[in-house]
Specification:
Elements lengths: L1 H15 L2 H35 L7 H32 L2 H7 L21 H18 L2 H39 L3 H34 L3 H7 L1 H10 L6 H10 L4 H14 L2 H17 L6 H16 L7 H14 L3 H13 L1 H35 L1
Helix pairs in contact: 1-6, 2-5, 2-6, 2-14, 3-7, 3-12, 3-13, 6-15, 7-8, 7-12, 7-16, 9-10, 9-16, 10-11, 10-16, 11-16, 12-14, 12-15, 12-16, 13-14, 14-15
Length: 388
């Protein structure tokens, strides 16, 4: 809601405010953008290292099965979004509209000054170091390093929740204020609305696919299962947090008839690592920003992005805006996004974050039911082997 208000205020103020006033916000945006660029490698390390490291603990084969199913689900969601973007966005967003919008950054007013905040190291270094250390912690059970990484994660989480997230509405208001004076905001909003509608439709399609698989594995009606999960969906819309919705999600997952041990294991884990709804949003947002900047959507560029997104989403924090924060490095390294493109991606993502979170949470019920079927099948096979 704050993001919607920020967009509306930005559009209104930008239409009436003098250039000197808009340049004040442009200066703030430059400073905030530099700070965000400085934080990106730290965010990557803070969430990916403990995210992968914690996968070494827990329930062995069941943990492996959960991680595999979640990765397939997240990548499938990204592929769905890419397919729709390649086949539908060119129709949904007509070439004349895309040409009229042009590059939104070309006509923006410049800031009065900038403050250089060079990152400690580049994004690719952070990604490689995070994967290496996370896998090392998981395989060697390095408890001291794990504790250090968790404490570092809590510090960066505090920076996100206390500094970055509260400042985002002002950052986005400044962006739309500047775009309004440049005459691009009305066209950008046309793009936003159409893309949001497509994203919501894809969320529904993905949930139907997830519950169809879970229903087939358990011989249950997928639509009745989805109906049972509605309270979790509605709670997630309000909280914008998979973690905050865990009690309701757990209650509804058990109402599906899920084994209690499976539910207790799967729901908290999936609240952290299963972000299929967000994968749809991130892939769609990335695609439309590339189109706005006159770039073609190619399989060779976006499929590797989606495969890496599936890994990165495992480490994304289950807090409002967590998905896009974990993905900023991929936007830079794999898609070549600059600061203006990243700011636009954050604005588009956060504006619908509650719906992505609701899709994530609702999909957790399907994952739990798949694990329930796997456990029952394995247990049944062991019983048959024992009797024979």
């Amino acid at each position: 809601m704050r993001i919607i208000i920020a967009i509306a205020l930005g559009g209104g103020i930008g239409a009436a405010a003098p250039a000197w006033f808009i340049r004040i916000f442009s200066t703030f945006n430059d400073i905030f953008g530099s700070f965000l660029a400085f934080c990106i490698p730290l965010i990557i390390m803070a969430f990916i290292i403990p995210g992968i490291g914690e996968l070494g603990k827990g329930a062995g084969k069941l943990l492996g099965a959960t991680t595999f199913i979640v990765y397939v689900s997240t990548c499938a969601a990204g592929m769905l979004a890419l397919f729709v973007a390649k086949t539908g966005f060119q129709t949904l967003l007509s070439p004349s509209l895309l040409n009229e919008v042009g590059n939104p950054g070309d006509s923006l007013l410049k800031s009065y000054f900038t403050i250089e905040m060079p990152p400690i190291f580049n994004v690719m270094t952070a990604l490689l170091f995070a994967f290496l250390l996370g896998i090392g912690i998981a395989s060697t059970k390095a408890d001291q390093l794990m504790n250090i990484s968790l404490e570092f994660k809590s510090i960066i989480s505090k920076v996100i929740s206390v500094v970055i997230i509260p400042m985002l509405p002002f950052h986005i208001m400044g962006i739309f204020m500047n775009m309004t004076q440049a005459g691009a905001v009305a066209l950008i909003l046309q793009v936003f609305i159409k893309v949001f509608a497509a994203i919501l439709l894809m969320h529904v399609i993905m949930l139907i696919l997830q519950y169809s698989v879970a229903g087939a594995m358990n011989r249950k009606n997928p639509f009745k299962m989805m109906k049972t999960m509605i309270p979790a969906y509605m709670t997630a819309l309000g909280t914008q947090s998979s973690a905050a919705t865990i009690p309701i999600t757990l209650k509804q997952v058990k109402k599906l008839g899920t084994d209690e041990d499976i539910a207790d294991f799967a729901v908290p884990l999936c609240a952290t690592i299963h972000i299929a709804g967000s994968a749809i949003t991130l892939t769609s947002v990335a695609s439309v920003i590339l189109l706005l900047h006159g770039e073609a959507l190619t399989w060779s560029q976006l499929i590797p992005f989606i495969l890496m997104l599936g890994v990165t989403m495992i480490a994304a924090p289950s807090v409002p805006g967590g998905g896009v924060m974990a993905t900023l490095g991929l936007f830079q390294t794999m898609l070549g996004f600059d600061e203006a493109m990243i700011s636009l991606a954050i604005a588009m993502y956060v504006a619908q974050d509650s719906f992505g979170t609701a899709a994530n949470v609702t999909g957790d019920g399907a994952i739990a039911q798949m694990l329930h079927a796997i456990k029952n099948r394995s247990f049944g096979n062991r019983q048959m082997d024992h009797q024979s």
